[in-house]
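TASK: fixed-backbone design
INPUT:
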């Protein structure tokens, strides 16, 4: 059973701890197609901005390439 890990904003540890996460990886391609040099995420507090940025970091980070299949 998935856990609700309130206040967690580190994507890889959230996946490893079997935390509940609304999958937003489909937006990565949309962000890449925008071609913008700067992106601004305007959302209310506690809406997952830091977790989304952590997911992007894990996706693009070359240092976690060996863990890619485990995380995604």
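OUTPUT:
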């Amino acid at each position: 059973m998935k856990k609700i890990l309130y206040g967690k904003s580190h994507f890889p540890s959230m996946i490893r701890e079997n935390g509940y996460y609304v999958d937003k990886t489909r937006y990565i391609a949309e962000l890449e197609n925008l071609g913008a040099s700067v992106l601004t995420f305007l959302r209310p507090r506690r809406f997952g901005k830091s977790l989304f940025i952590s997911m992007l970091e894990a996706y693009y980070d070359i240092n976690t390439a060996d863990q890619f299949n485990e995380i995604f």
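COMMENT: The radius of gyration is 13 Å.
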